[in-house]
Write a structure and sequence with these properties.
Layout (H helix, E strand, L loop, with lengths): L2 H8 L17 H18 L18 H24 L1 H37 L4 H4 L11 H10 L9 H19 L3 H17 L17
């Protein structure tokens, strides 16, 4: 019997199916608590607001910022940790670098949009420059603008209320090192995190936040 007749007797060959990796579903718990943290942060920054007296910071050792940062760290671990495990070092580093690039330009964009809104409000409301002059970015528009422009692009100028995205950049940059430590167990990771916290709160590794003033990154 020929090969063709044998194949027809058995039946048509099944098509080759390329396995696809199942996408991990979003953890709605992280989304919920990140949203809750952002809402509490918003409430606490509204002036003359009685609800600011009942935020978590009034009753414990942490506040909504810690909630948001913890959830962001968990989301980063889920998003990028699996990449290192399944694809290896180079793809993991490439994705981390790409994400850092996105966050960096998001930070620059937030600064420029905020400055534009303040300038626009002063112009439309004829305030005489009140909003811009009383904001944390007022020095940027003074006689030392070239110095502050370089500082903005190099993250050596991080004015008040613009600290979160630079902080997230540092967290992202630490992920490859933490993943590498995790290959040796949980104890080295815990020791590194606790040591970093102790050194960070001591002020030894404060990052400069103003090229012409003794300001540091708030976070």
């Amino acid at each position: 019997m020929s090969t063709a007749s044998s194949a027809s007797a058995v039946g048509p060959a099944e098509p080759h199916v390329v396995p696809t990796r199942l996408r991990r579903p979003r953890d709605v718990r992280l989304d919920f608590f990140r949203g809750l943290g952002m809402f509490i942060i918003f409430v606490s920054h509204v002036p003359h607001n009685i609800w600011a007296n009942v935020i978590p910071a009034r009753f414990g050792f942490s506040d909504a910022t810690e909630i948001f940062v913890f959830c962001s760290g968990m989301a980063s671990a889920l998003a990028f940790g699996r990449m290192f495990d399944e694809s290896g070092l180079i793809p993991g580093l490439s994705r981390i670098a790409h994400r850092c690039w996105q966050v960096y330009w998001a930070h620059i964009g937030v600064f420029l949009v905020s400055a534009s809104l303040l300038i626009g409000a002063d112009y439309l409301l004829a305030t005489g420059g009140h909003y811009l002059s009383t904001s944390s970015i007022a020095p940027f528009f003074g006689p030392d603008t070239p110095m502050y422009l370089v500082g903005l692009l190099t993250l050596s100028y991080v004015p008040g209320l613009f600290n979160i995205l630079p902080m997230y950049l540092v967290i992202l940059a630490l992920i490859p090192f933490v993943v590498w430590l995790g290959r040796y167990g949980r104890l080295p990771v815990a020791a590194f995190v606790l040591s970093l916290y102790a050194v960070g709160t001591s002020g030894i590794i404060d990052f400069g936040g103003d090229p012409l003033a003794p300001e540091v990154w708030f976070f």
